[in-house]
Here is the input.
Amino acid sequence: MKKTLFALAALFCLTAHQSIAADAPQAGVAAPSFTLPSQDGKSVSLSGYRGKWVVLYFYPKDFTKGCSLEAHNFQEDIAKYRARDAVVIGVSVDSVDSHKRFCTKQGLDFKLLSDTKHVVSETYGSIMKHGDETLSARNTFLIDPKGVIRKTYAGVSPAGHSSEVLADLARLQPKE
Here is the structure.
């Protein structure tokens, strides 16, 4: 019984809506630069994606229900993002090895970055406490090809989030 209650409490906390910290970067400002290791152990820098739209999403924990759903939905829509010259990048405080296993299990072929020291999550105002653990909060930043944040999403719902981001991307991209 205790295990079940703990699991339910953990699931609630990991899917609870979080806000973006007041000192986090907002729409209209340059996205803070960073370099973090990805699931393949290679360093990834935000500056390496200049010229593309970037969906930078923070999530609490690999292998949890909400995080798996959110990642799966981004993966399901990955061709739509690529058609819009956009990349999806996930960030959590999990290790590179955890990300590698998570990508394999979920069939993900976009980058998941390991922020074990919480620096990038804190810079983006996307940090939360879960008991004694510090986790990334479920927030997303839509960054344009010049490196400017165009939209922020706080405490997103994993189920429809990818569709929401795609709709905003279509609205924000210049019509040709």
